[in-house]
Design goal:
single chain; mainly alpha; 4 domains; 23 helices; globular
């Protein structure tokens, strides 16, 4: 009898120790992977995951799998994520909402809406986080209407869900979307109004749906204005062709960030005046050196300089920029066209090919406009052949081509 008791106790102790070691090992691996992901070392995080998968696949915790899926999401490695789903966690998704949410986020970020939708539909117990992942995914994939339909299924939306709704309304930009944003904003708890991110999204929705007056009123009544709120109003002014108001608002900001300065350059580009050019020069000199590493900011600066008439300074800045992006090329090509210098536009196009930078709609639109100015039929024919066929379905490309062919009768 005593021997049996000792054997049972010994066996239970071994199981307990093994379980304890497993938990500690899982916790350590999860922490290591999180550190790698936080430092944007996603490939290393997956390599570490693979190293432990061989022997411990069945006992991985949800936190470990979530970190692996996070790495796949950032790397846009859909197939890898699907493999993890298929072999490691297919049996868990019905009960593990945390892992399910991570999977939905992966699929949506990789544009696999169908897989995300299937996973969402087959999940019996849905929480607000899963709804949020789906709504965010729909918005990311330009399907804001579906995000709004999903919002209407949620009985008690939290601040994150309402923020996503405002984002969806902003993307649609219709009168119906405006009315929905107003209806929801008037019904939310007062405590939500202290959420600065939520208020910035509401301002953005109001502006993009065309209700500038309401957005201005809400902005003026807000006591603790954040940089995001200023950005939403400035962006709205620029989109509604009120660049002067955007610049006036910019002058109220003590420490503008890169986004605000980018919007400021956009506003100046819209004005196209000598006064705007002087402001561009003044601000560009004062910005921190670190801001000059932001390619979108430099592209906006180039765009402002060219549209305000200082093509020489823009050209100098472009030539001195080592890592040139397609946005920078687009700004300069558009600038050369404005200066009636189409051959320089074509020179940049040839340089892009040498640097192995593929063109987009903006680039090819600039090229067609340059060819219209040159009015050389054979040259135009040879360059148009270099444009991939799928760009010809774009309305802007079609209209530019029609204008060009009209030039040749």
């Amino acid at each position: 009898m005593l021997t049996k008791i000792l054997k049972y106790y010994s066996s239970s102790l071994v199981v307990s120790i093994k379980r304890s070691v497993t938990i500690q090992s899982n916790s350590h691996l999860s922490t290591q992977m999180k550190l790698l992901n936080d430092n944007k070392q996603f490939k290393k995080a997956l390599a570490l995951f693979d190293k432990h998968t061989k022997n411990n696949a069945e006992i991985f915790s949800s936190s470990i799998i979530t970190q692996a899926l996070k790495a796949c999401t950032h790397l846009r490695d859909l197939e890898r994520g699907k493999t993890i789903h298929r072999h490691l966690i297919s049996s868990r998704t019905k009960n593990d909402l945390y892992t399910t949410t991570s999977l939905i986020h992966l699929y949506m970020q990789c544009n696999d809406i169908q897989s995300a939708q299937l996973l969402f539909d087959t999940t019996t117990t849905k929480n607000v986080t899963i709804y949020g992942a789906m709504m965010k995914g729909y918005i990311k994939n330009k399907q804001a209407k579906k995000a709004i339909d999903l919002f209407n299924q949620i009985e008690t939306p939290n601040e994150i869900i309402i923020n996503l709704l405002f984002n969806a309304c902003a993307q649609i930009g219709t009168l119906e979307a405006l009315n929905l944003a107003k209806k929801v904003s008037s019904a939310i708890p007062k405590s939500f109004h202290s959420n600065s991110i939520l208020m910035a999204s509401l301002l953005d929705a109001l502006m993009k749906c065309g209700d500038i007056e309401h957005a201005e009123s809400l902005f003026d009544k807000t006591t603790n204005k954040t940089i995001q709120m200023y950005g939403a109003i400035m962006k709205g002014y620029v989109q509604n062709d009120q660049a002067k108001k955007a610049i006036d608002l910019f002058n109220q900001i003590v420490k503008p960030d890169e986004i605000i300065i980018n919007l400021f350059f956009n506003a100046c580009a819209q004005l196209r005046t000598l006064e705007a050019l002087n402001l561009v020069n003044k601000v560009s000199i004062e910005i921190p050196k670190s801001f000059r590493l932001n390619p979108l900011l430099i592209a906006s600066l180039l765009d402002a300089l060219t549209k305000c008439g200082d093509i020489k300074q823009a050209e100098s800045l472009f030539d001195n920029t080592t890592n040139k992006t397609i946005e920078m090329y687009g700004a300069m090509m558009n600038g050369f066209n404005l200066e009636n210098n189409p051959f320089k536009t074509l020179d940049l196009f040839n340089k892009m090919k040498v640097d192995n930078i593929k063109g987009n709609i903006i680039i090819f639109h600039c090229i067609i406009r340059a060819l219209s100015q040159i009015a050389d039929y054979k040259l135009s024919q040879s360059i148009i052949k270099q444009i991939p066929n799928y760009f010809f379905v774009n309305n802007h490309i079609q209209y530019a081509l029609i204008d060009m062919w009209v030039m040749f009768n």
